[in-house]
Specification:
Elements lengths: L11 H22 L1 H9 L21 H6 L12 E6 L9 E5 H17 L7 E4 L8 H13 L2 E4 L5 H11 L3 E4 L1 H13 L11 E4 L13 H9 L3 E8 L4 E4 L7 E2 L5 E6 L12 E7 L10 E7 L1 E2 L11 E2 L4 E2 L4 E3 L2 E3 L1 H8 L5 E10 L5 E9 L4 H16 L4 E5 L1 H8 L10 E3 L3
Parallel strand pairs: 3-4, 3-5, 5-6, 6-7, 18-21, 19-20
Antiparallel strand pairs: 1-2, 7-8, 9-14, 10-11, 11-12, 12-15, 13-14, 16-17, 18-19
Helix pairs in contact: 1-2, 4-5, 6-7, 7-8, 9-10
């Protein structure tokens, strides 16, 4: 079944009115069922009857990651007997947080992914090879699995890593698409080249990519996206999501940003002072989840910096589109007078063929500014030659170059792939 919600093709004023009606229902549910938000409304003297427009949301305080950690079970809106699945966040910026999902929430999650895959030109009968974990309390893998099935497709649950198994599965079952972290595509290409696999003539026609940017802010492919496309002529679709949102933003074939699903989430961009930024400017993504039963959120600050785009898309959708994530608020680096985020450093390193793995470490130096060191695992050239080449690449792309240090790929792997983490640890922040 194809999922194309009618609201995604309506004029902006219709979408806004639609969301405001959803918001009123959401606020009433929170006041009735959420211990945390009921206390918040009483403490801040908030009359939810006066919250009628999206602009009125600014009368309500933000919800933070710290709130979720310190008052976790106060966000539960149902009895524990109604919780169908427990999920935790990845803990990239802080300790993992538990999320409780009812059977209804799982259905909503599957629907979200079904409309996202449809947005990414998915269709009934397609076969998707899932190259992410579905266990370890991970929401995304479960969401992809359920969403593809709801759309009417098939899933092959291979999991992450193991290029040999990935190619054996592709050759045996001939899937149409893969779902993976984009930098892993380069690893399976490298494996195919080393082992004589004709990957360019495989069954794979597209990749739905998670966790890393493929595009620059103007929607052109960044270094990682360009390198993949130079090697393998498949369609690439970027997605953005988080456990807290329970909703994803997925590109369509136009590749002009992740499309917003108005029936599932309300989005704001706010500045350092918490004010909504003018249209076209970057800000911290703040979300209000709609239709969630177990742990709905109100004005939750994600920590992710992005821009919104409102021009109608050539796919026909009129919904807001979110830019590639510029960075995470808490991870902003000031290097030699230049402001940047780790993702910009990752993009340079992911485009260097002799770099096998790496991590970025930032600390405060003796004068109180950021000291950035890139620790690289690689084989091949002399360290002197590689240092010069890497610094030249950084200066060409970022205008500044961090310090470079080398270690064995094995030693770096122990740091970047700890057993208790679901995602690679590529950024270590030791600042005071």
């Amino acid at each position: 079944m194809m999922y194309n919600p009618e609201i995604e093709y309506q004029p902006r004023h219709v979408i806004k009115a639609f969301q405001e009606e959803k918001l009123r229902t959401h606020l009433l549910y929170l006041k009735t069922h959420s211990p945390f938000y009921k206390q918040l409304f009483e403490r801040e003297h908030i009359d939810i009857e006066k919250i009628k427009t999206l602009e009125d949301l600014q009368l309500i305080p933000f919800t933070t990651k710290e709130n979720l950690q310190l008052h976790n079970e106060e966000f539960f809106c149902v009895e524990k007997s109604r919780i169908a699945d427990y999920i935790t966040t990845s803990g990239t910026l802080s300790d993992p947080t538990t999320f409780a999902m009812t059977a209804h929430d799982l259905d909503r999650l599957a629907y979200n992914e079904a409309i996202s895959f449809t947005c990414a030109d998915g269709k009934q009968g397609e076969i998707y090879q899932l190259m992410t974990t579905i266990d370890k309390r991970f929401m995304a893998g479960l969401a992809y699995f359920m969403g593809v099935m709801k759309m009417g497709g098939s899933v092959i649950r291979v999991g992450n890593g193991i290029p040999e198994l990935q190619w054996d599965t592709i050759q045996r079952l001939k899937p149409d698409a893969i779902i993976c972290v984009p930098s892993f595509i380069l690893k399976i290409i490298q494996y195919a080249e080393k082992n004589g696999i004709d990957y360019r003539n495989s069954s794979i026609k597209k990749a739905v990519c998670i966790g890393e940017n493929l595009r620059n802010q103007d929607f052109s492919f960044n270094l990682l996206g360009t390198r993949i496309r130079e090697k393998w002529d498949i369609d690439l679709y970027s997605t953005y999501a988080s456990t807290e949102m329970g909703t994803s933003f997925c590109e369509c074939g136009a590749g002009q940003g992740g499309h917003h699903h108005p029936e599932l989430i309300i989005c704001e961009l706010v500045d350092e002072k918490g004010n909504v930024v003018p249209e076209g400017e970057e800000g911290e993504l703040t979300v209000t989840t709609l239709g969630v039963e177990g742990m709905p959120l109100l004005r939750f600050r994600t920590g992710d910096i992005a821009r919104f785009h409102y021009e109608p898309c050539r796919c026909g959708r009129t919904t807001m589109r979110i830019s590639p994530i510029i960075g995470r608020k808490n991870q902003m680096i000031k290097l030699k007078g230049t402001t940047l985020y780790p993702a910009a450093i990752f993009d340079v390193l992911d485009n260097v063929e002799y770099v096998e793995n790496y991590y970025v470490q930032v600390s405060s130096n003796e004068i109180g500014t950021d000291a950035v060191t890139v620790v690289v695992g690689c084989m091949g050239l002399s360290e002197e030659a590689m240092t010069k080449d890497l610094k030249d690449r950084f200066r060409a792309k970022l205008r500044v170059a961090p310090d470079i240090r080398f270690d064995t790929p094995e030693a770096i792997r122990k740091i970047t792939m700890p057993e208790m983490k679901r995602k690679p640890v590529k950024f270590i922040d030791n600042r005071k």
